[in-house]
C-alpha cells in the first residue's frame, strides 16, 4: 500500500567502512567524478557529495562519508560516528579474494556500526571483483562468514548479529556491477 506521507530524505548520508586498501575510496571517487584513478592514499576521513535523482524523479544530495580503514584511525572513526548520527545506510566493504577482509566485517566493522546505530540498514559490498577470473557471486560466502548462516541456509547460528544485510559486488576498475552497487546503496538508504 502506498503511504502518501512516506519520507524521502533530500539529503542522504551513507558511510563506507572496511579494511584498508580494499578499494573504498576509488569506488567513491569514481562515483563522484566518473574517473577511476587507481591511486592509493590512506584515507583518514573525507566526505564527498553528489547530486542524484531518485527513483521517483525527485532530486537529492548524497553525502558519501569515506572512513579510512587504518587501525591508526580507530578512535577517530568512533568519534565521527558519535557525531554523525543521521547516517541512512552503512556500507561495509571487503575485497573479493581476501577472506580476512570478510572475517574483519564480522569481528570489527559490524560491531562498530551496530554500536553507533543499531537500526540503520547495512549493505555489504564486495570490491575488486575483477580479481576473481571466474566472476563468482560472493553473497552466500559473505552471509556464511558474517552472519553465520549455515550452508543449507536453514538457520542463522548468530541471531544476535541482527537482521542481516543486502549485498552487491563490483569491480571499480572494469565497472562491472558498479551501477548496481550504487543503485542498491541508494535504494537501501532511502527505504522506510
Ligand atoms: N584490481 C583492482 N584494484 C583496485 C580496484 N579498486 C581499487 N583498487 C586498488 O586498490 C588500492 C587501494 O584503493 P583505495 O580505494 O585507496 O583503498 P581504501 O579501501 O580506500 O584504503 P584506505 O583508505 O586505507 O581505507 C589502490 O592501489 C587501487 O589501485 C578494483 O576495482 N580492482
Ligand atoms: Mg581510502
From TrEMBL:
The keyword Nucleotide-binding applies. InterPro entries: P-loop_NTPase, Small_GTP-bd, Small_GTPase, Small_GTPase_Rho. SMART domains: RAS, RHO. The keyword Mitochondrion does not apply. Pfam families: Ras. GO terms for biological process: small GTPase-mediated signal transduction. Keywords: GTP-binding, Hydrolase, Methylation, Nucleotide-binding. This is P-loop containing nucleoside triphosphate hydrolase protein. It comes from Morchella conica CCBAS932.
Amino acid at each position: 500500500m502506498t503511504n502518501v506521507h512516506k519520507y524521502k530524505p533530500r539529503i542522504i548520508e551513507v558511510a563506507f567502512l572496511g579494511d584498508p586498501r580494499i578499494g573504498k575510496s576509488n569506488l567513491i571517487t569514481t562515483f563522484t567524478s566518473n574517473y577511476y584513478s587507481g591511486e592509493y592514499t590512506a584515507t583518514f576521513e573525507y566526505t564527498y557529495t553528489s547530486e542524484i535523482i531518485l527513483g521517483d524523479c525527485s532530486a537529492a544530495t548524497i553525502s558519501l562519508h569515506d572512513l579510512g580503514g587504518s587501525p591508526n584511525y580507530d578512535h577517530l572513526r568512533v568519534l565521527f560516528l558519535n557525531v554523525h548520527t543521521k547516517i541512512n545506510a552503512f556500507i561495509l566493504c571487503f575485497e573479493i579474494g581476501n577472506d580476512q577482509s570478510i572475517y574483519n566485517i564480522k569481528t570489527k566493522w559490524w560491531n562498530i556500526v551496530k554500536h553507533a546505530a543499531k537500526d540503520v540498514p547495512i549493505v555489504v559490498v564486495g570490491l575488486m571483483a575483477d580479481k576473481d577470473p571466474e566472476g563468482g557471486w560472493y553473497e552466500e560466502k559473505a552471509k556464511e562468514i558474517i552472519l553465520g548462516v549455515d550452508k543449507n541456509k536453514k538457520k542463522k547460528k548468530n541471531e544476535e548479529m541482527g537482521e542481516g544485510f543486502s549485498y552487491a559486488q563490483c569491480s571499480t576498475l572494469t565497472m562491472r556491477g558498479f551501477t548496481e552497487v550504487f543503485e542498491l546503496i541508494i535504494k537501501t538508504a532511502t527505504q522506510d
